[in-house]
Amino acid sequence: MTRSDIVLQINNLKTAFALDEGVLHAVDGLSLTIPRHRTVGIIGESGCGKSVMAQSILQIVSKPGRVTEGEIFLYQNEDAPLDLAALDPFGRTMRAVRGGVISMIFQEPMTSLSPVHTIGDQITEMIREHQTGDRRKANETAVDMLQQVGIPNTEQRMHEYPHQLSGGLRQRVMIAMALSCRPQLLIADEPTTALDVTVQAQILALMKELQQQFGMAILFITHDLGVIARMADVVTVMYLGQVVEQAPVREIFNHPLHPYTVGLMQSAPRLGQGRTRLQAIEGMVPAPINLPDVCRFMDRCGQAQAGLCDHEVPPLIEIKEDHFVRCALYEKGGDA
Amino acid sequence: MKTVHNGKPLLELQDVKKYFPIEQGFLKKKVGYVKAVDEVSLTLYQGETLALVGESGCGKTTLGRCILRVLEPTSGSILFRPDDEDIDLSVINKKRLRPLRRHMQMIFQDPFASLDPRMTVLDIVGEPLIENGIARGKALAERVGRLMTTVGLDVKHLNRFPHAFSGGQRQRIGIARALAPEPRLIVCDEPVSALDVSVQAQILNLLLDLQAEYHLAYLFISHDLAVVEHIADRVAVMYVGRIVELAAAPSLFKTPRHPYTEALLDAAPHPDPDHMPTGKGLTGEIANPADPPSGCYFHPRCPYAEAICKTERPDWVEVDTGHFSACHFACDLSLRGVD
């Protein structure tokens, strides 16, 4: 991959929360490359750090969280890359990036839209901030965007408030807002989790269609294996703040290697299996506070070996082309 | 499979309706009704799991609440037979209802909202035992301890408060509480949808084990068809307050007989990158139960709708043995199920 194919490059990112109980390492040494025009899927259970990672990119981690280490390079054009991690979160440059170059849609559209402003006001505010000061032009762009995301009676909807829309329509408004400034990267944090399945299918199809049209890269964060299979080109599996496996979507679903990935795949209920018991992963995700320097999945892993898994955090190694795994069982090239 | 039953069902619903009035103005004039549950008839046998599937707002939770008499149904009868006697829950008075409560329990969706943060596990799980006069004092602690082991929790944590437990563990506490008075029926309202995949599998397995051991009847309310397939014997699909299809689970998943069921199966995400939806996905969103469409409620979204669907409400017909559908073309359409 040459440099011009990349939109965002994260190197060894660490985001930590200093709590009374100790330091919580929500993201712990994460590296990730997001190519242009492609969808990178992040999958993991609650508490694995996937949302904090997304917030770190935009520098909107809530206190006491802080990016403590690492680089986040944004490649906008031929110029030198911009290191977002080094920017002032409240500075002019970061504000221009947020919404203008990288935008984000959230899980719950009701809490991320303002209840006291009309849909029209909220979209045009964004366009006027980043693109044009002209009220009329901004209005035209907003109407056009709402039509593109498939909202009927656009002119009328512009004057309505979020509570007058259904969940599916609200999420369409969020997408329209996020795409109104033609971002190069769209971060979607569980965008369909709060929606019904038939509406979810519509929104996922819409996102794919708009990606074709606008050519932006998508960082798609979810806990749902079914959604990731439908959306992602490359899948990254996170566990306790670290990447444990990464591979192209077909490769990871057909040949998962890390015991955690395998466990996730087996425990997900899928249609067509009938009334059967599921293979659950034992135990639960521990809080990422004061973790020892060993494999983080060791306690829940059926294949953990004393002497092998308990002396260091295994490195992320490329086991075959584009397939990375962080597991001591694969370190010597052997298979588990 | 438990399709053959001798004797009467544990629970029998006939034409149950729950209408919520829409009131307007200072005088609270009734201007219409939200027909949250409309003419629902169902049966549930001892030891069986009946799943109630549908999207948000379809009335599945309201129906569950009517059965437990948290809500009083507008009309219809709900026959419950914990012993040999028939009891109609829809008309029973509060005093007679109270001793029946131990036979019917509920497991809630959100384990963070459904447990009192100021009560210890012992208090939470022990409360139904004390209320129903089943155990107290030393026997109570012993019994709660046994329940904790049954649901896979550590007895040592008896005196802890809910905040000390993870989501999956809290759901286990909720299950222990529901199990405590030895009920015959448990209404499970989206019991795993707030949980992570790996924990969800643990809880589903636990529910299966408990059913086998105690011969429980579950009314399993869910929006997730993949979860339902793993636990249900029979499935009822609801749309805007009405049941549109009812069948044994394998039959419903293999050969759906209602276009809405087909659409739900098609839209469900598969953890397989080579599986793509057929693309004839539904347009529009679920109808408003306060102002439902004419004829078949599903016709504005249905890809197979014809003129008759706009004007006439379809009959409830038995297409195959035990496989019911409310669609004008239930027998004619060949719908795509799960391979």
Question: Which terms would index this structure?
Answer:
heterodimer, A: 336 residues, eight-stranded mixed sheet, B: 339 residues, alpha/beta, four-stranded antiparallel sheet, 10 helices, 12 strands, 23% strand
- Ranges of chain A where pLDDT stays below 50 over 5 or more residues in a row are none
Segments of chain B where pLDDT lies below 50 for 5+ residues? none
Percentage of helical residues of chain B? 25-40%
Range of strand content of chain B: 15-25%
Overall body shape of chain A = globular
The coarse overall form of chain B would be globular
* Oligomeric assembly: heterodimer
How does the helix and strand content of chain B classify structurally?
alpha/beta
Question: Pair with the most extensive interface?
Answer: A-B, 46 and 51 residues
Helix tally of chain A equals 11
Q: Report the total helices of chain B.
A: 10
Topology order of chain B in helix (H) and strand (E) letters = EEEHEEHEHHHEHEHEEHHHEE
Biggest sheet features of chain B = 8 strands, mixed
Strand order of the largest sheet of chain A: 6-7-8-3-9-10-12-11
**Strand segment tally of chain A:** 12
Tell me what you see in this structure.
The complex is a heterodimer of chains A (336) and B (339). In chain A, helix 5 packs across helix 7 (167-179). Chain A contains eleven helices and twelve strands. In chain A, the strands form two sheets. An eight-stranded mixed β-sheet of chain A has the order 6-7-8-3-9-10-12-11, with helices on both faces. In chain A, strands 2-1-4-5 form a four-stranded antiparallel β-sheet. In chain A, strand 11 and strand 12 form a beta hairpin. Chain A is α/β, with parallel strands linked by helices and 336 residues long. Chain B is of the alpha/beta class. Chain B contains ten helices and twelve strands. Chain B has an eight-stranded mixed β-sheet, sandwiched between helices. In chain B, a hairpin with a 4-residue loop joins strand 1 (11-24) and strand 2 (29-44). Chain B is globular, with a radius of gyration of 21 Å. The mean pLDDT of chain B is 90.
